[in-house]
Each structure stands twice: as structure tokens, then as C-alpha cells.
Specification:
Layout lengths: L5 H17 L2 H8 L15 H12 L1 H12 L10 E2 H10 L12 H14 L12 E2 L1 H16 L15 H12 L2
Antiparallel strand pairs: 1-2
């Protein structure tokens, strides 16, 4: 079908990706990817680490969009185009994403990731959205942050970067071990 052809799917992911990058995902990846030099953090261009992250997301795009569609239905309202906090909480529970006694992936910290991504997607005069719901590009942003929290930060030193580990690897590990 046209809607879910590889070309249409790639176009959708790239649009969502660039919207997420505009909301701070690119800078987040640059801060945590081992391939990014500290001098490059001020750059507005996407670096190799971000391109690798996009590639890792593309490898899992069908699952990403299936998860988004399914958990968007948890809100119980008319809006099936966003994920409410209760839908996200259900994802965390269904996939046992929260880790007790974790410094980076406790339930409380995963909830804070939702709030941080929600705020980063706010536009206009208000720095906070009133509906506390994530659109698709914010969901992608959230998945990258959860991947980093679970599969990169535990190996990182004080710099926030783990030698030899990339954001793309963390994304791949999230999908291979947690979201299956």
C-alpha cells in the first residue's frame, strides 16, 4: 500500500526526525555520543552520531510506529495522534523499562524524560504545553533518551559519554533487548 511503502515510511521517519532535532534531539545526541568532540557541540549541523542514530531508528521504524499507534489509543479520547502520559506509563510497565535502584532508568527518571521531551516540544510564548501529550516526533525523541538512559549512561563517566559506545548502539540495544 502507498501509506506504508518503504518510501512513504522513510519520508515519515525523516520528517519526524528533523522535527525532533529542531526540538533539541540533535544537541542531546551530540552531548552523549562518543564520536562527537566537545568542540563540535556548538555546531548546528547534524554529525555522524546523529546520522547513525537515524539509521538505527530506521531499522526499527515499523515497531516505532506500531507502538505509537497502539499506545496513542490509551488516552480514551478522540486524539489518536498523540501519546498521553498514561500511554507512556503503560509502555514503561508493559516492557519493564524501569529499573529499581538504577541511577539512570528508575521509574521516576523515566517519567522525567517524558516531561523533558514534552517541554522541549512546546512552541510559542508558553514553555509548557497544556495537554502533556507527545506527538510522533516527540515519541522518537523520547525513545532515544530512554535508550541513552538505559544503555549508554550506565557506562559513561563524568563527561556523559561512554568510550566506544554510541547513541545508535544504545538505540539498537533498546529495541533488541527491551522493546521486543
Amino acid at each position: 500500500a502507498l501509506y506504508d511503502s518503504p518510501i512513504a515510511s522513510r519520508c515519515a521517519l525523516e520528517k519526524d526526525w528533523w522535527r525532533a532535532v529542531e526540538c533539541g534531539l540533535g544537541k542531546f545526541i551530540a552531548r552523549h555520543d562518543a564520536s562527537t568532540r566537545d568542540a563540535d557541540l556548538a555546531s548546528t549541523e547534524t554529525d555522524a552520531g546523529a546520522e547513525e542514530a537515524l539509521s538505527a531508528l530506521w531499522s526499527n521504524h515499523e515497531l516505532i510506529y506500531s507502538l505509537f499507534t497502539y499506545y496513542a489509543s490509551f488516552a480514551g479520547g478522540d486524539d489518536m495522534l498523540t501519546i498521553a502520559f498514561n500511554g507512556y506509563t503503560q509502555i514503561v510497565a508493559d516492557f519493564s523499562l524501569a529499573e529499581r535502584r538504577s541511577t539512570f532508568a528508575s521509574k521516576n527518571l523515566l517519567d522525567q524524560i517524558f516531561i523533558a521531551v514534552d517541554v522541549s516540544g512546546a512552541t510559542g510564548a508558553s514553555s509548557r504545553k497544556k495537554n502533556k501529550r507527545l506527538e510522533r516526533h516527540e515519541f522518537i525523541h523520547l525513545l532515544v533518551r530512554v535508550a541513552v538512559a538505559k544503555h549508554l549512561l550506565p557506562y559513561a563517566g563524568t563527561t556523559g559519554k561512554a568510550p566506544g559506545r554510541s547513541v545508535a548502539l544504545a538505540i539498537s540495544e533498546l529495541f533488541a533487548t527491551d522493546l521486543r
